[in-house]
């Protein structure tokens, strides 16, 4: 797919955040239970002055359409177990899989293979209807969900991670339940989730280079104004002192 490399920054493996999606175990909850998927390739418009969330695009390799990433946010963020459907050509946009999700899918292969083959086409039709409803409404603005990131961090990251590491490992290893340790670790994971939500809130509101350049120009103009004001003040004070010394010399 062709795109302007001077304008767009590519998010794909081995980008650190994309690598995090592939390697972090807790994301099996997002993928297998909630159906939240991450496209293999995302494009970030570096020349836009909009927040990060509003300048991220998901390219379709089939029709080469740049789809706004916000199409798969909020109410339409979940339920995409088979991938993301392009609203233009209705083909599946390739998505990543967490390696732990792949391991579980490999183990449970006989359970899901035939149901998937049967329901896949029906699911695509449902996805088309969901996208049509999304396109009828204005896309979400980054500022409108600032507070929501905190809830997502606590309940969408902290709680699932606690369940995975504290409950899942006990069930997997067949160990005895240590309720005291589980209750002690719960606030730690909730605080970690809250911190993650704060970071995401900051990240999705980051401005592009254009905005940063404007901010730098504004600061430069402000700095130039301060410096010129100080220079005028210093020059005037120096001239006043010189006049004072000249007057004293003449009086003597």
Describe the structure.
- It is a single chain.
- A hairpin with a 6-residue loop joins β3 and β4.
- The protein has 2 domains: 143 residues, no CATH class; 62 residues.
- The strands form 2 sheets. A 4-stranded antiparallel sheet has the order 1-2-3-4, with no helix packed on it.
- By secondary structure, the chain is an alpha+beta fold.
- It contains 7 helices and 6 strands.
- 58% of the residues lie in helices and 8% in strands.
- The longest helix is centred in the last third of the chain and has 43 residues.
- About 7% of the residues have low confidence.
Helix content: 55-70%
Strand content: 5-15%
Rg, alpha carbons: 28 Å
> Spans with pLDDT under 50 lasting ≥5 residues?
211-227
The N- to C-terminal Cα distance equals: 86 Å
Present the secondary structure layout.
Blueprint: E1 8-11, H1 16-23, H2 27-33, E2 42-45, E3 56-59, E4 66-68, E5 84-85, E6 92-93, H3 99-107, H4 109-136, H5 148-173, H6 179-204, H7 209-251
Antiparallel strand pairs: 1-2, 2-3, 3-4, 5-6
Helix pairs in contact: 5-6
What is the compact description of this entry?
The protein is α+β, with helices and mostly antiparallel strands and 252 residues long. The protein contains seven helices and six strands. Helix 5 (148-173) packs antiparallel against helix 6.
């Amino acid at each position: 797919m062709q795109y302007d490399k001077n304008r767009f920054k590519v998010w794909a493996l081995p980008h650190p955040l994309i690598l995090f999606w592939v390697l972090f175990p807790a994301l099996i909850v997002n993928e297998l239970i909630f159906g939240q998927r991450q496209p293999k390739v995302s494009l970030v418009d570096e020349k836009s002055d909009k927040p990060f969330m509003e300048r991220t695009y998901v390219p379709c390799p089939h029709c080469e359409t740049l789809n706004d990433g916000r199409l798969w946010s909020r109410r339409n963020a979940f339920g995409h177990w088979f991938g993301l459907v392009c609203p233009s050509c209705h083909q599946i946009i390739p998505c990543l899989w967490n390696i732990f999700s792949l391991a579980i899918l490999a183990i449970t292969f006989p359970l899901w293979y035939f149901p998937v083959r049967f329901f896949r086409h029906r699911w695509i039709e449902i996805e088309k209807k969901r996208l049509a409803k999304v396109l009828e409404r204005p896309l979400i603005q980054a500022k409108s969900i600032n507070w929501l990131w905190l809830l997502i961090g606590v309940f969408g990251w902290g709680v699932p991670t606690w369940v995975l590491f504290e409950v899942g490992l006990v069930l997997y290893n067949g160990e005895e339940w240590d309720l005291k340790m589980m209750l002690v670790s719960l606030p730690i994971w909730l605080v970690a989730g809250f911190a993650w939500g704060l970071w995401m809130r900051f990240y999705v509101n980051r401005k592009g280079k254009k905005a940063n350049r404007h901010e730098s120009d504004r600061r430069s103009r402000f700095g130039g104004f301060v410096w010129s004001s100080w220079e005028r003040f210093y020059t005037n004070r120096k001239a006043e002192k010189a006049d004072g010394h000249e007057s004293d010399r003449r009086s003597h």
